[in-house]
Amino acid sequence: MNDEARLKTWNIYQAAWGPIDEDERRRLLEQSVAADCVYTDPGSQIEGRDALMARIGQTQLKFPGAHFRNDSFLEHHDQGLFRWTMYDGAGRVFVTGESFGRFGDDGRLVQATGFFDVPAAKV
């Protein structure tokens, strides 16, 4: 698998975090993450695609319309470092961060770890 394929997988994964319906989110996650994936960020650590589905749903409830843009991508040895920007539902910059991803033999993510300052909820 080349870096272009890994970037495509990462972009599919990021799209799953956007304001989409549950069926589309599940379809995107099935394409991009292993069933037993591990996800961590400053506020959570979860295992499995179903738990990731729930985590993403919580994010969309707390920050409706939030979505990502990938800013840069570095890759080697089945691992990637991704710099990204998250936008709120109005398209304003919401938070920036970096994520580390590890890809399995089938090209899907087996681990995703996000690094960012936790944003405050909109009230």
From TrEMBL:
<dbReference type="InterPro" id="IPR037401">
    <property type="entry name" value="SnoaL-like"/>
</dbReference>
<dbReference type="Pfam" id="PF12680">
    <property type="entry name" value="SnoaL_2"/>
</dbReference>
<feature type="domain" description="SnoaL-like">
    <location>
        <begin position="29"/>
        <end position="111"/>
    </location>
</feature>
<protein>
    <submittedName>
        <fullName>Polyketide cyclase</fullName>
    </submittedName>
</protein>
<dbReference type="InterPro" id="IPR032710">
    <property type="entry name" value="NTF2-like_dom_sf"/>
</dbReference>
